[in-house]
Amino acid sequence: MKKTIAIVLAAVLILAAFSACSAGSKTAAVAASGGQASNGSAAALSGSVSTNGSTSMEKVIGVLQEQFMNDNPNVKVTYDATGSGTGVEAVSNGTCDIGLASRKLKDTETGLTATTIALDGIAIIVNADNKLTDVSLDQIASMFTGKTTNWSELGGADLEIACIGREAGSGTRDGFESITGTADACVLKQELTSTGAVIEAVKNSKNAVGYASLSAVEGQDGIRILTVGGVECSEQTVLDGSYTIQRPFNLVTKDGTALSPAAQAFFDYATSSAASDLIRQAGAVPTSSTKS
User: Fold this and answer.
1) Distance in Å from the first CA to the final CA of the chain
2) Contacts from 155-162 at CB under 8 Å and sequence distance 24+?
3) From CA 198, how far away is CA 196, in angstroms rounded?
4) Are 68 and 139 within one domain?
5) Mind listing the pLDDT tens digit for each residue in 89-144?
6) Strand locations in the chain, DSSP E?
7) Are residues 79 and 64 in the same domain?
């Protein structure tokens, strides 16, 4: 009987020792993984992030959302290319998480904060067959207000000038008109609703001139980018300010409304230095985040 009891006690002690070792190993494993369980499910970011606005920011938002979703496979980031004005309205009324505006906020757009993630040059583009290489700000204004109507007046071919521009509410149009002093005075042959449509229209018309985001026109066939006052539109000239027709790329958020964890994580990523190379690859000029 004593022998049986001794055997049972020994078995209990062995089992207790084994359990303690197992628990210690699990504790060590969790500590080694930074305090998370090995599958990381407890700390995994999930959810959706909706962005809405500027068509000019398509490439920038595209590369940022792709990388962010690669890093966070349980998060879906969507982009609705509607134009800056619509994006600002969408974030204001709560139908998207983050608005996208390729312009400064207007005085009437209150209760919002714009955070700049990049600068973008607005390139002046002509058909590839146009022999003109340079224009001044005054000449641009004269063309777009209908005062200069023929390319021969600028040293080009004897062709009527056809000005192509964006629709009201577009951040590209707002930036272009505010810098060239042509607000509410442009005489347009075509008024189009996207950057891509402007580029295509200029490609298809030998007498056309238009304006579009630098990030969208670089490497495009069928068009040429004019220098303005002898200064080319490039990352360097936009950053140093020597190219004057430029505007900000902004993330717009609603004051007093907290972003979801997923949306806040995307916002933090897009405004961090980690995103700079991707923004540059998309053709824009990354800059330190500022608020306006």
Assistant:
1) 86
2) 156/130, 156/131, 156/132, 157/130, 157/131, 159/206, 159/207, 160/207, 161/207, 161/209, 162/189, 162/190, 162/205, 162/207, 162/208, 162/209
3) 5
4) no
5) 999 999 999 999 999 999 999 999 999 999 999 999 999 999 999 999 999 999 99
6) 47-53, 75-81, 98-101, 112-127, 134-135, 162-166, 190-192, 208-213, 223-228, 246-254, 285-286
7) yes
Is 25 inside any structural domain? no
218 near 212, Cβ under 8 Å?
Answer: no
Determine the Cα–Cα distance for residues 91 and 87; give it in Å rounded to an integer.
Answer: 6
Instruction: Name residue 112's beta-bridge partners.
Output: 254
Angle ∠(101,105,110) on CA atoms, nearest 5? 120
- Looking at the domain assignment, is residue 4 inside a domain? no
Could you tell me the two tokens for 242? 């020597």
Residue 288 confidence (pLDDT): 56
Q: Both 160 and 74 in a single domain?
A: no
Give a yes or no: residue 111 inside a domain. yes
Question: What confidence score (pLDDT) does residue 36 get?
Answer: 29
Give the count of domains, the chain.
2
CA distances (Å), origin 224, targets 35, 120, 152, 166, 217: 56, 18, 18, 19, 9
Q: Report residue 118 as tokens.
A: 């990049």
CATH number at residue 161: 3.40.190.10
Instruction: Give this prediction's pTM.
Output: 0.69
Residues 237 and 258 in one domain: no
pLDDT at 24 over 80: no
Please tell me whether residues 242 and 200 are part of one structural domain: yes
For 69, the domain range is 46-118+248-286
- 209 within a domain of the structure (yes/no): yes
- Residues 129 and 206 placed together within one structural domain of the fold: yes
